Amino acid sequence: MERLTDGVELLDGPLDDPAALAGNLRDLRRINRWLGGVDLSAASIEALAAHRAELTLLDVGTGGADIPMALIARARQRGRRLHAVGIDSRPEVLEAAVRANPAIATTEGLELHVGDGRALRYPDRSFDIAHASLVLHHLEPTAAIELLREMCRVARLGIVVNDLERSRLGLVGAWLVGHLLTGNRLTRHDAPVSVRRAYRAGEMAAMLRAAGLLPVRTSRGAFGQRYGIAALVAPDAAHDVAGRSAEGVPDPHGAGDL
Question: N vs C: which end of the chain shows fewer Cβ within 10 Å?
Answer without folding.
Answer: N
